[in-house]
Amino acid sequence: MKQLFFLAGLMIISHMTTAQNGNVYETRTVKSEILKSERKYSIYLPPGYNETDRSYPVLYLLHGAGDDHTGWVQFGQVQHIADNAISSGKAGPMIIVMPDADTGRRGYFNDIKGDFNYENFFFQELIPHIEKTYRVRSERRYRAVAGLSMGGGGTIFYSLHRPDMFAAAAPLSAGTGSWSLEEYKERMKNQTEGISETAIEKHFEHHSIESIINNASEEELKQIKSVRWYISCGDDDFLYEGNARMHIAFRKNEIPHEYRVKDGGHTWTYWRMELPLVLEFVSKSFMQH
User: From the centroid of its chain, how far is CA 161?
Assistant: First the structure.
């Protein structure tokens, strides 16, 4: 009898422990007509997702160049960090979606030749798929985006292009794009053969932080300012200059944002350190907007 009670107790403890953990599904797919392929993504479902019918806020968490949708799972320890942030009360329960960008082509952006329009896929197919497949709160106030390096660049430009879609944006060690047309042409010269000067200039302006801000209408700038921004970069990161310039551009245009420079480089050690703070930051955004 004592043994039965002991086993029952273990089962209860095991159930309680399991209930406090979220689940990561490393590879799920969505069919993309835009990209003419099956696209992969990882997803974190918070503790209690399978036990209730509650709907949750969502964070789109973007990987860097050289990784894929499993980067934040394998190296970023997203499940462990998210579970701890939620159980400690520093972050509210949320769904975290980690899509795979084709890093060998143009990552998160639309290709200048128009044959790999990943940004269109993200907004027109991925987000609707997530909101149809999972219990996601679909209002803007419950949607955020974050990412590291190339994914930090995706975070910046998705939020500048579509500030109506996100309550918060948290680029980490971000690739901030080219800061002049000449720099852009040099960086893109292998991809712009046969492209007109007008098209090149238009593509640059669409992926230039200063151009987007300077060309924004009063209403568009107001919307950019309504996004809660968290910008972070290590003091030893090779991308520090672009992040500093973004901070200065935001300050000049009175765009509210948190800007953090901390000890560290372009490493997973830095991004794992920042992820709990990102989860806390976006959670406050979900509650405040």
Answer: 14
